[in-house]
Amino acid sequence: MDTPDYRRVPDHITVAVVGAGPAGLGVARVLRDLAIPDVWVLERGQVGESFRKWPSSTRLLTPSFPGNVFGMTDLNAISFDSSPGWSLKREHPDGPDYAKYLNMAADAFRLNVQCGLQVKSLETEADYMLLHTNHGEVRADFVIWACGQFAAPSDGGLIGGEHGMHYASVRRWEDLPGEDFCIIGGYESGIDAAIGLSNAGKRATVLDAGMPWKDNNKDPSRALSPFTHQRLSAALPRGNITLEDDADIVAISRDGEGFNVLACDGRSWRTPNAPILATGFGSGTAPVSEWFDYDEAGLPRLTTQDESTELPGLFLVGPEVSHNGYLFCFIYKFRQRFAVVARAIAGRLGADTSVLELYRNNNMYLDNLSCCEDDKCLC
Amino acid sequence: MDTPDYRRVPDHITVAVVGAGPAGLGVARVLRDLAIPDVWVLERGQVGESFRKWPSSTRLLTPSFPGNVFGMTDLNAISFDSSPGWSLKREHPDGPDYAKYLNMAADAFRLNVQCGLQVKSLETEADYMLLHTNHGEVRADFVIWACGQFAAPSDGGLIGGEHGMHYASVRRWEDLPGEDFCIIGGYESGIDAAIGLSNAGKRATVLDAGMPWKDNNKDPSRALSPFTHQRLSAALPRGNITLEDDADIVAISRDGEGFNVLACDGRSWRTPNAPILATGFGSGTAPVSEWFDYDEAGLPRLTTQDESTELPGLFLVGPEVSHNGYLFCFIYKFRQRFAVVARAIAGRLGADTSVLELYRNNNMYLDNLSCCEDDKCLC
């Protein structure tokens, strides 16, 4: 990869893909297979930037296995011809390992990636979109927004949220000063934090309005993953994790001796250390939010081609894609929409799209969204 | 499930599926979806019999994840509408847990399973096949052989193989008397044995003619799984596992003080305890071997419909299915052939097979074997 301070991207390109994570690299690969010229991936940091910043003990939740040859593409692969399970020899890569795979993929797919270029805003002109960056302007006929949410931590609207420490800001649980922590939120991040703290010999109390650790939902986007269930089962007997359900936290306050975490029913928890906020993430679309409409859940409204309903030519790929209430928030889900976006762009450019049949045959082209409605777990 | 000593299966049935493991239950489910009448699964022990006998620390090698709804069916599921990852909340179930899932599946699919009925041999009559069992005879128009290989341990033709102890005969590594073990064979079973012994605080020396632990083959049927790589990496720093490549073992001898393990180049290893044989498994087809032809690798020769080349009406499902050198030895592979066998039988009975499109759409119907020829791991 090039050094961040050297700009190679031309002034006017066909497609600007913003973000060199799994979504951006994955969709750029499809565009390359379609022989779309002048496609550039613009990345504020390095390839896989957010993954490089994950807490050291955090792992991908979906297990990698190189089942590609029999149509069971590695769940963490961004293409049907690559497998982090095979190249990294790990089922659950950590963030930096996964960034390595993304780097290998960018090379293997021969993608144009411009690192160190941060897109700050988007303006429309008559015939193109104008991206303002930290290294001048880029004109693009199409823009595919592919920024993840890790860089947009949210405190979930808590009163006094500024007293908390967001999950995404922690690099190593063992380095946190203090022995006793409250964690607000009991989904994947909250349980990961609890396990990380427990493994470091610290005590963790997880507070959640519901009981995600008991949720039997069949959609992995709504319930804990088997990996997390398994890790939690292994950690619980140690006795330093407490799971508190029915704790709908609304506020954090601070006094001379520590922090007070308040639930809506009046109960409260004292903790000497800043509460960990496992309260989720905002949208990765913030720099271009004026060009998207958002639904009640804060998700960008999209056409059936994953194009902004507000600005033709601006597409979205990645974990914020949703349709009919179905979240595409895992790699194995959102990668199935890369080909949909690529076909839309290729169609407008008059390019041949026959190669996309290969994507369909490899379970990498999901355009019939009714499939998601079946109950697929009898047992 | 019924008790083993009570026979419910009628004298004459349409399809006898022999073996209530993942292969037998999986193919029986497809036949039920096709509304084929009088299908019975005949099982010598209980549902999932072999899995119940696995060493206690052994886990399924392929990771379970309930990705079914997005077309990424749990790798260990026997149908596209079930997921052991979801029902067991484990990525790598142990044998008894997986047997639980199989039991749930047999119930959920409302299959006819006759436990405690062991098929000992097969004879042909003019219009049907006659199965001799421990509870009388069963006449069947079609027979689907679905016995796994775990019950057929092989010493790989070692001289003095009777001095060894086969991997499949061990229930708990920590219960083995002795502190120091030679393991003959370094593929999945051998490495699993080494890790099991190491975890129990014992020393293990793995002897293999090649170097499977370094093999970078892209086919998981030929190289160690990511799960095993990961477990081995975690165990090696403990220092009690030795991996010896280029050790082509040909003989075991025994004297008053222990055992001698001899390689073809004249080197030998002394060990006080019976060497562990991780030398693989024979064929699960032994009781009907006269009705199959076998290739040089000892695999049954099959038609493109997975029918015996020697006896029309006798089909094979499970890990011994192979075509063009491709092994279907994982659940996620061999399950893709259930529908092929079911279609062949349904076709001869004149049954409607349109429901099988659902199987094709769910990556559970692999009839184009050329798919396996692609290189699907660029990185």
Describe the fold and architecture.
The structure is a homodimer of 379-residue chains. With 379 residues, chain A is an alpha/beta fold. Chain A folds into 2 domains: 221 residues, 3-Layer(bba) Sandwich (FAD/NAD(P)-binding domain); 117 residues, FAD/NAD(P)-binding domain (3-Layer(bba) Sandwich). Chain A has 9 helices and 17 strands. In chain A, strands 1, 2, 3, 4, 5, 6 and 15 form a 7-stranded mixed beta sheet that branches. The longest helix of chain A has 14 residues. Chains A and B meet through helix 3, helix 4 and helix 6 of A and helix 3, helix 4 and helix 6 of B. Chains A, B: GO terms for molecular function: flavin adenine dinucleotide binding; monooxygenase activity. Chains A, B: Keywords: Oxidoreductase.
Considering the chains and any ligands shown, give keywords for the structure.
homodimer; 379 residues; FAD/NAD(P)-binding domain; 2 domains; five-stranded parallel sheet; 9 helices; 21% helix; globular; FAD/NAD-bd_sf (chains A, B); flavin adenine dinucleotide binding (chains A, B); Auxin_biosynth/cation_transpt (chains A, B); monooxygenase activity (chains A, B)
Question: What is the fold's blueprint, element by element?
Answer:
The structure is a homodimer of 379-residue chains.
Chain A: E1 12-18, H1 22-33, E2 39-43, H2 49-52, H3 84-88, H4 95-108, E3 113-115, E4 119-124, E5 129-133, E6 136-145, E7 165-166, E8 180-184, H5 188-199, E9 203-207, H6 226-235, E10 241-244, E11 249-255, E12 258-263, E13 268-271, E14 276-277, E15 314-316, E16 322-323, E17 326-327, H7 331-334, H8 338-349, H9 356-361
Parallel strand pairs in A: 1-2, 1-6, 2-3, 6-15, 7-14, 8-9, 8-14, 9-10
Antiparallel strand pairs in A: 4-5, 5-6, 11-12, 12-13, 16-17
Helix pairs in contact in A: 1-8, 5-6
